[in-house]
Design goal:
The protein is mostly helical and 113 residues long. The protein has two domains: 1-81, no CATH class; 84-112. Helix content is 89%, strand content 0%. The protein is built from four helices and no strands. It has helices at 2-5, 8-27, 29-81, 89-112. Helix 2 runs antiparallel to helix 3 (29-81). InterPro entries: Perilipin. Keywords: Lipid droplet. It comes from Chionis minor.
């Protein structure tokens, strides 16, 4: 999870969503109240689940370690094949706009000629 969270694309998307979420909660008090209640509920469920799941995780620890290692290697390969994962969301949006714009200009020039 940490390896995925540290990808530039994922971390920048998280920052954008977090900022929008905080801004929405601040700007709309009723939505903020609902969000606060939902956050408390999720926190309670997470705490309760963690205490119940811990004995199972201890038993499965060697298997979990193998899965983590396998997933990490797969993610490394994915990062190699998709350099897009190392770009922030804003850069991807800008690059996409530029690409679409250049294609529209190319099409317009083709039609004009």
């Amino acid at each position: 999870v940490n390896q995925v969270a540290n990808l530039t694309l994922v971390s920048s998307a998280h920052d954008m969503v977090s900022t929008a979420y905080a801004s929405t909660k601040e700007s709309h008090p009723y939505i903020g109240s609902v969000c606060d209640a939902a956050e408390k509920g999720v926190k309670s469920v997470t705490e309760a689940t963690a205490s119940c799941v811990q004995p199972v995780l201890t038993t499965l620890e060697p298997h979990v370690a193998a899965v983590i290692e396998y997933a990490s290697k797969g993610l490394d390969k994915l990062e190699e094949k998709l350099p897009l994962l190392q770009k922030p969301v804003g850069q991807i949006i800008l690059d996409t706009k530029e690409l679409v714009s250049s294609r529209v200009v190319d099409a317009k020039n083709a039609v004009s000629s």
